[in-house]
Amino acid sequence: MSASEDLDKRRTAAVARGVSSVITSYVDHAGGGTLTDVDGREWIDFAAGIAVTSVGNSAPRVVEAVRRQAELFTHTCFMVAPYESYVAVCEQLNTLTPGLFDKRSALFNSGAEAVENAVKVARKATGRQAIVVFDHAYHGRTNLTMALTAKNLPYKDGFGPFAGEIYRAPVSYPFYDGRTGPQAAARAIDLIEKQVGGANVAALLVEPIQGEGGFVVPAPGFLAELSEWAHTNGAVFIADEIQTGFCRTGDWFASSYEGIEPDLVTTAKGIAGGLPLSGLTGRAELMDAVHVGGLGGTYGGNPIACAAALAAIETMRELNLAAEALRIGETMKPARRAASALALPTAAICGFGPVKTIPHVALRSASDCTALALVRTSQS
Ligand SMILES: Cc1ncc(COP(=O)(O)O)c(C=O)c1O
To answer: Disulfide check for 353: which of 207, 249, 264, 366 has CB 3.0–4.6 Å away?
Structure first.
């Protein structure tokens, strides 16, 4: 029996069935874009811990920052005894997120927690309750974020009842709906105004590029129209950049591609080189609408996670990982040419940097897939 098989037996007896894994090999160490399992096999790490280890696994600067901080202190709880690194991460978030207006940030542990807090802030600041989310959205697995997430299996099935005052609108999915961004936004706004009422909407919550089960890239203008509608209707525009943030799309944040400046931005995943940290950043007047003590948690902005985040952000800046993401995206261009050669709709292949989508339905047959692969190989 291999070491992984042995571990899998122990896992079956000890770990809840609901927690699943993609591979059955167990990791021994990782770095340089690969995972090495306990049997010495090396795997190319395309998943990066679900879009987390953008600066690499055990990136040297992150490891050193974590080691140094762990020697100084591991935890005080920022709500009890504050420390500089929490403030420094908030300063970075306020600077890096789109928009030059006065901002404030707060730190949490997971993406779902950041989204929950975005909803809290939007409701408190507007005095309204309705939150509008979109088809295909993914925002997490807590009770509120399950309500915000679209897909039933595996995320929601049997876990209800879910939080109330959540409304779902159609997203822009140009490959399927054939609508321009403004047309898709008009359809969503019509539904919101009819079924919710503009004056009841606390926030529109949207991922600039949806990332659950394949990327959904909205048509140009969709996000800008929604953001404009939110502003004229007194609602908060929240961009969930948990997956798209921190250089993944070739810019620090994907909202920049649409020229939008969200009122609130949620971040997590790539922010801290693999340590659990998330952030909520937004207009000072919205963030500070919350009463003193209204935001926080025992571990949110843990000092080791903050040290890791500062090191990860420094690494992204120094190595210009946004430009690197664009470069990786460029390597996918031949796929577009191949699609065109195959008379597939090239509009189907879209996205920013390496965050690109090639719908399976665009590939009508196995021979189309082979042709794409061949063109890719011959042009690389
Ligand atoms: C867009 C988006 N929002 C929220 C989340 C939830 O983050 P977490 O798993 O850290 O709670 C995710 C995670 O995949 C995500 O992609």
So the answer is: 249
C-beta separation of 375 from 337 below 8 A: yes
User: Does 374 or 262 have the greater pLDDT score?
Assistant: 262
Which residue's CA is the closest to the ligand 1 atom numbered 10? 111
Is 140 close to ligand 1, i.e. is its CB under 6 Å away?
A: yes
- Residue 240 CA: nearest ligand 1 atom is 1
How much distance in Å is there from the Cα of 140 to the middle of ligand 1?
A: 5
Q: What is the DSSP letter of 14?
A: H
Dihedral, 246, 252, 253, 259 alpha carbons, nearest 10:
180
Which pLDDT tens digit goes with each residue over 101-128? 999 999 999 999 999 999 999 999 999 9
339-366 per-position pLDDT tens digit: 776 666 666 678 899 898 876 655 556 5
* CATH 2.60.120.620 assigned to 63-318: no
Ligand 1 pocket, 207 CB below 6 A? Answer: yes
User: In this predicted model, what pLDDT tens digit does every residue of 272-305 receive, in sequence order?
Assistant: 999 999 999 999 999 999 999 999 999 999 999 9
Q: How far is CA 353 from CA 225, 252, 265, in A?
A: 23, 11, 20
| pLDDT (0 to 100) of residue 370 | 58
Ligand 1 centre to CA of 214 (Å) is 14
Q: Is the CB of 242 under 6 A from ligand 1?
A: yes
211 CA closest ligand 1 atom index: 16
Domains of the chain, by residue range, sit at 3-46, 63-318, 331-379
Angle subtended by helix axes 303-318 and 84-96, to nearest 10:
40
- What strands, in cross-sheet order, belong to the sheet with 166-169? 103-108, 278-283, 264-267, 236-240, 201-206, 130-134, 166-169
115 lines ligand 1 (CB under 6 A): yes
How far is residue 185's CA from residue 182's CA, in Å, rounded to a whole number?
5
CB 26, CB 38: distance < 8 Å:
yes
For residue 377, the model assigns a pLDDT of: 46
> pTM of the full predicted structure?
0.94
